[in-house]
Write a structure and sequence with these properties.
Elements lengths: L5 H14 L6 H15 L2 H11 L15 H4 L2 H4 L34 H13 L5 H18 L9 H4 L3 E4 L8 E2 H14 L9 H12 L3 H4 L3 H16 L12 H4 L3 E3 L1 H30 L3
Parallel strand pairs: 1-3
Antiparallel strand pairs: 1-2
Length: 295
């Protein structure tokens, strides 16, 4: 398992705690999803992505120099708090206890991840739309596809695990964090054998790309509502398979009891994370290829 120094972990934790609601997978995971997708783009789509991003700018309006899906996959978190921000687009607040009710009850006005991806892809595919609109649609899609494959971004319990404090067994000087951040950041870093604030290495991306290429067409081409359902199931049966989790009503104090993520839990989570990163990358490439290929 990847180990971080106490100072590095504390510094990262402080920053990530403040940004928790904004991120899924964190920078490392989003870049991994984008890196897998970049490898699976068709020649036509790759050329069009480069054209759309040739004049890309960052949150402050400065030229970004970003020309790939991996590089722009962080933009939707970068703009948090700006007029361009759309906080509810990053998740689907799907219940994890009992039968799933009508969508309108947990996705008001269709302003959630699974419902925004379709319109954004339509905007990306529209050759008559202004270039800036198509560019922003591409950047949103590059991010939201990754978001929707993080199990706790399709789960309502304790704000997607943000209110569940945890520690990771076996980590040297394990700082208290939350279940959501553990899945966004620490477990991803462990799965990819690097640090959360670094880029995924070629060695880490290679098996993800191979796994993505091997996926059946029916899996790669599945619609966003299926991604949401898959993630919700993983939230129910893996991410929330922790001591003390219950669908029964509990007091606030009980709901906030600290949870130890055992080494066996971490091994299972890493397997799921690896699979989901590859799956998200494959599906991101599939939807971008479809949107950018000539009719």
């Amino acid at each position: 398992m990847s180990r971080l120094s106490g100072a590095s972990r504390a510094a990262c934790f402080a920053l990530l705690w403040l940004a928790a609601p904004a991120s899924a997978w964190g920078p490392l995971g989003h870049r991994a999803v984008g890196g897998v997708a970049d490898a699976l783009l068709s020649p036509t789509a790759r050329k069009e992505v480069a054209r759309l991003l040739a004049d890309d700018h960052d949150r402050d309006g400065h030229p970004s120099g970003r020309t790939t899906l991996a590089e722009v996959s962080l933009w939707a978190d970068e703009i948090r708090g700006s007029p361009a921000d759309r906080p509810t687009w990053h998740y689907d607040n799907v219940p994890v206890c009992g039968a799933i009710p009508a969508e309108a009850s947990w996705c008001p006005q269709q302003q959630c991840a699974s419902n925004r991806i379709g319109p954004l892809l339509a905007q990306l595919a529209d050759r008559n739309a202004p270039l800036q609109q198509r560019r922003e649609a591409l950047k949103w899609v590059a991010h939201l596809v990754g978001d929707l494959h993080q199990p706790l971004h399709a789960a309502d319990f304790a704000q997607g695990g943000n209110q569940v404090p945890v520690e990771l067994q076996g980590w040297r000087r394990s700082s208290p964090t939350t279940l959501h951040i553990a899945w966004d950041v620490w477990l991803v870093a462990s799965a990819l054998h690097t640090r959360p604030n670094e880029r995924p290495t070629e060695a880490a991306l290679r098996p993800l790309i191979a796994r993505a290429r091997a996926l059946p067409a029916g899996v790669r081409e599945a619609p966003p509502d299926r991604w949401r359902s898959e993630s919700n199931e993983l939230a129910r049966h893996v991410a929330l398979d922790v001591p003390g989790f219950s669908c029964a009503p509990v007091s606030g104090a009980a709901a906030m009891a600290a949870v130890l993520l055992t080494t066996s839990y971490q091994r299972r989570a890493r397997r799921v994370i690896t699979s989901q990163l590859a799956l998200a990358g494959a599906r991101l490439a599939a939807v971008v290829n479809r949107a950018l290929e000539p009719e």
